[in-house]
């Protein structure tokens, strides 16, 4: 929509150029030529700028009399009106007019007053201080005059635009101002003061509009239906006079932004809200402290004090702060919304508390205050936008989705960030951490990216959960970025934002960006590859092949599954004639070579290790037997996509009925179907013969998300199921997000009244490791020898013990390959273990693991010296049971039976 245009030849549009114009100083006959547009210049103490501005305007190569300049002065005290009056009348080639306002000075109101006076159908607004080069005026007005666009923005933030002479803080303010407006409108320089538009558009500007950002008001009033173009300008800081932009204007801007986004603000509301909040803080903090000191524990104390403060806040807010938006009696739907916001705030605040108390060892009576602040922020925005939204001029559906997406994505990302470092590792993550302790070119069961990321993260942040997981977090952001760009290219920016929303809340996106597994970098590389594939194959851009080579290579380093996208690309090129031309050009081959080069560490590792990894993966993919498991694949898809997501995916893949039939739309469909369908088809085929892993299909949905996001607001699709689906998204998003927040709070702090169950074997390794350490110390004391600790599962036990092991006094930890059983990478790290007379502690998650393998074969008891019985330990925290762990002590090992 926002196309960049080059400086057009204005004379094409100003056809009435007079040939008889003279410069005699006498009333110019040409002044009677038709007026085409009006320039509105607001002034407040700009006396020194009037002459230079008008001189430069009159020097423009435009037909005399084709425009007028209307100055709107707000009571300048430096003689500005007099300066303007000197130019009024007919002694110049310019038509200059002056409006002197007598009301309270305001930039927006001044401009609107000038517009009301204007005689041209097209308006240009510009500053008086020469910050906006008058020479760019023809370029700015042309797109509106020739009716190709409704609004033209003089933009500093498009190629060719710039800012000269502004101090750094002004540049930052301007950038931040622009970014804040980004969720609402797609213009790069929404805070520009230099723009042109058709006059009638101004009538839609909100009655309440105030302050500096009239352009934003204009764009928002157009509800996204305007054709907007950005014309690059070079903004020069003023050389005469001073800027009138004050803190007050910036405050007004923030308020207008919130209102335009559909939120409720007024100074009264905010300050009353704050007053109520302060009483709430006191209630909350005091009760929390009292509960803590009476031994309630972090979770119970903060939840109880929260509800006490929230109940009080709600009654005061609804009766007082937001009373205009409240009918005076308790509205259940509103109360429900209030509770929803409160529960999300509560679950987030648990994370903040845990981070401060457990992670950073801040005393709890201090930690409660930042926690309350986080709660208050969530509550405030939740109240302003969701519980008590401004109903007077609600923004369009599109803007409402954007605002909601923005808030929800922020919440999801912050939730991850807060809990990242305080939730214990799952065994898989501990396994990949062990990879990073044995850095190599590649590994047996996965390519190396996950290990490299963990190595990097832990090098910076230390060997803790945060260091391990930060890589996944960053990968999640990269995935979002590329998915947004892909969806924007396929559809539009709004679709891009909604696609990111879906990625942030659907399980396959949330979980892969939270846990540090190979799927985290895989998702990022998959999204990046899709983005470059679309740019190369559909948009026909050569440079995209470079990105593709990089993304594809890095993706293969993450997980071999990414190769499926190569297959999809091949199919696309075979079907699509336009893309087929690439086969005869060098770019795809160069990209493939680059990818191969990046992938070479894996090839080298495999050469050194008898192709172990490649054999293992292809065996797993092909030789998995003939157990029909398609039903499992469906169940897993239901889990990673949610039922709503699955139905939406089916609809998105279905042939379009009344959608866009253009050539581009057809190619886009082909792209989406092939890049989703190909990988899915392979997973389907594999599931005909053996059990799929539940996260297999996760990346495959990335290519379909843009279409699903697009359909979320498509009014033209009249299938009733599509309409009902639209209604289903809201609860789906809410339930998903609640589930993650709840789960994180549960594993980190607990939820009062709900015991830990289901983790009995696989989680809480920090506490379990501590118990095993005590046992190992006891054995060492009794025997005088350091025991060997053997994890008796494929890798979960040994790797988790290694991660949570006391690094100052590490245990000697081995895999069960010691006894000839398969232990994945441990087979490589500790290839063989000779007989020993050192004591051995076998550790398992289930009792049978300490006796034989899963099939009941391979009884290990005979190779142990004086094996003891299997012991069970109940692991507790603060007196509450967490899980169990099993161990067995022997006084030595006789060596592998083959010897
Ligand atoms: N009538 C009237 N009333 N004019 C005003 C008022 C007012 O209350 N306040 C400022 N002006 C006039 C100034 O005289 C000048 O011509 C123009 O509005 C811009 O004011 P400046 O004080 O020079 O603003 P700035 O340079 O800091 O900000 C400019 O750049 C920003 C870019 O981020 C303006 O163009 C902003 O609109 C723009 O957002
Ligand atoms: Mn200025």
Automatic annotation (TrEMBL):
Its main location: membrane. It holds the Pfam family PMT_2. The keyword Metal-binding does not apply. InterPro entries: DPM1-like (IPR039528), Glyco_trans_2-like (IPR001173), GtrA_DPMS_TM (IPR007267), LipidA_mod_glycosyltrf_83 (IPR050297), Nucleotide-diphossugar_trans (IPR029044), RgtA/B/C-like (IPR038731). The chain crosses the membrane at residues 298-317, 338-360, 366-389, 401-426, 466-487, 499-516, 543-575, 587-608, 628-654, 670-690, 696-713, 733-754. Keywords: Cell membrane, Glycosyltransferase, Membrane, Transferase, Transmembrane, Transmembrane helix. Residues 38-201 form the Glycosyltransferase 2-like domain. GO terms for molecular function: dolichyl-phosphate beta-D-mannosyltransferase activity; pentosyltransferase activity. GO terms for biological process: lipopolysaccharide biosynthetic process. This is Dolichol-phosphate mannosyltransferase.
């Amino acid at each position: 929509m926002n196309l960049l245009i080059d400086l057009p030849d204005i004379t094409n549009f100003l056809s009435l150029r007079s040939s008889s114009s003279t410069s005699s100083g006498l009333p110019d006959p040409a002044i009677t030529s038709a007026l085409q547009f009006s320039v509105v210049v607001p002034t407040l103490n700009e006396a020194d700028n009037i002459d230079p501005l008008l001189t430069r305007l009159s020097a423009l190569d435009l037909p005399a009399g084709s425009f007028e300049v209307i100055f709107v002065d707000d009571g300048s005290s430096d003689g500005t009106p007099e300066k303007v009056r000197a130019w009024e009348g007919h002694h110049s080639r310019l038509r200059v007019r002056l409006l002197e306002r007598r009301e309270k000075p305001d930039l927006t109101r001044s401009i609107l007053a000038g517009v009301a006076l204007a005689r041209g159908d097209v308006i240009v607004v510009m500053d008086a201080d020469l910050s906006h080069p008058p020479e760019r005026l023809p370029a700015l007005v042309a797109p509106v005059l020739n009716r190709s666009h409704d609004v033209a923005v003089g933009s500093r933030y498009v190629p060719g635009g710039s800012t000269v002479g502004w101090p750094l803080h002004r540049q930052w303010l301007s950038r931040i101002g622009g970014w804040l407006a980004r969720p609402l409108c797609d213009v790069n320089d929404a805070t520009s003061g230099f723009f042109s538009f058709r006059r009638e558009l101004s009538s839609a500007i909100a009655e309440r509009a105030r302050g500096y950002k009239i352009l934003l008001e204009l764009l928002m009033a157009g509800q996204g239906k305007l054709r907007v173009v950005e014309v690059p300008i070079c903004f020069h800081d003023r050389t005469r006079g001073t800027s009138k932009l004050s803190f007050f204007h910036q405050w007004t801007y923030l308020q207008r932004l919130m209102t335009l986004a559909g939120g409720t603000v007024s100074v009264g509301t905010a300050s009353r809200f704050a007053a109520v909040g302060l009483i709430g803080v006191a209630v909350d903090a005091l009760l929390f402290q009292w509960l803590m000191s009476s031994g309630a524990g972090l979770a119970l104390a903060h939840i109880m004090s929260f509800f006490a403060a929230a109940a009080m806040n709600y009654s005061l807010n609804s009766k007082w702060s937001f009373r205009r938006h409240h009918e005076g009696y308790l509205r259940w739907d509103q109360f429900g919304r209030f509770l929803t916001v409160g529960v999300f705030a509560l679950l987030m605040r648990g994370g903040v508390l845990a981070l401060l108390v457990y992670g950073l060892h801040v005393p709890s009576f201090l930690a409660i205050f930042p926690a309350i602040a986080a709660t208050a922020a969530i509550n405030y925005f939740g109240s302003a936008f969701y519980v008590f939204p401004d109903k007077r001029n609600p923004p369009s559906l599109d803007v409402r989705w954007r605002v909601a997406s923005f808030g929800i994505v922020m919440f999801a990302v912050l939730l991850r960030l807060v809990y990242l470092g305080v939730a214990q590792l799952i065994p898989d993550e501990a396994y990949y951490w062990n990879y990073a302790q044995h850095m190599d070119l590649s590994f047996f069961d996965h390519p190396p990216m996950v290990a490299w990321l963990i190595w990097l993260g832990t090098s910076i942040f230390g060997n803790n959960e945060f260091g391990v997981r930060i890589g996944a977090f960053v990968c999640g952001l990269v995935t979002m970025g590329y998915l947004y760009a892909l969806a924007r290219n396929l559809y539009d920016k709004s679709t891009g934002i909604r696609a990111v929303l879906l990625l942030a809340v659907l399980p396959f996106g949330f979980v892969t960006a939270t846990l540090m597994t190979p799927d985290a970098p895989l998702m990022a590389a998959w999204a990046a590859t899709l983005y470059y594939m679309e740019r190369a194959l559909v948009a026909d851009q050569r440079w995209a092949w470079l990105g593709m080579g990089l993304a594809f290579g890095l993706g293969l380093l993450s997980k071999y599954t990414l190769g499926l996208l190569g297959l999809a690309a091949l199919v696309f090129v075979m079907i699509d004639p336009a893309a087929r031309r690439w086969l005869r050009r060098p770019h795809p081959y160069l990209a493939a070579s680059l990818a191969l080069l990046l992938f070479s560490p894996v090839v080298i590792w495999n050469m050194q290790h008898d192709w172990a990894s490649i054999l293992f993966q292809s065996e797993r993919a092909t030789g998995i037997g003939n157990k029909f498991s398609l039903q499992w694949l469906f169940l897993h898809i239901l889990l990673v996509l949610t039922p709503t997501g699955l139905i939406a995916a089916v609809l998105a893949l279905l042939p379009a009925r009344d959608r866009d039939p253009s050539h581009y739309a057809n190619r886009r469909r082909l792209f989406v179907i092939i890049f989703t369908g190909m990988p899915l088809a392979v997973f389907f085929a594999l599931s005909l013969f053996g059990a799929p892993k539940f996260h297999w299909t996760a990346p495959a949905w990335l290519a379909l998300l843009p279409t699903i996001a697009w359909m979320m607001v498509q009014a033209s699709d009249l299938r009733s199921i599509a309409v009902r689906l639209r209604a289903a998204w809201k609860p789906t998003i809410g339930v998903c997000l609640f589930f993650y927040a709840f789960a994180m709070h549960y594993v980190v702090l607990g939820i009062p009244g709900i015991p830990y169950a289901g983790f009995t074997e696989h989680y809480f390794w920090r506490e379990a490791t501590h118990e095993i350490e005590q046992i190992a110390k006891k054995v060492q004391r009794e025997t005088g020898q350091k025991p060997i600790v053997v994890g008796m599962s494929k890798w979960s036990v040994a790797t988790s013990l290694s991660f949570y092991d006391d690094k100052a006094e590490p245990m000697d930890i081995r895999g069960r390959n010691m006894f000839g059983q398969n232990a994945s990478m441990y087979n490589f790290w500790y290839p063989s273990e000779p007989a020993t007379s050192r004591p051995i502690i076998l550790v398992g998650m289930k009792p049978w693991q300490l006796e034989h393998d899963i099939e009941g074969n391979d009884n290990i008891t005979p190779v142990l010296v004086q094996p003891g019985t299997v012991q069970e330990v109940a692991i507790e925290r603060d007196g509450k049971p967490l899980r169990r762990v099993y161990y067995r002590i022997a006084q030595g090992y006789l060596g592998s039976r083959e010897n």
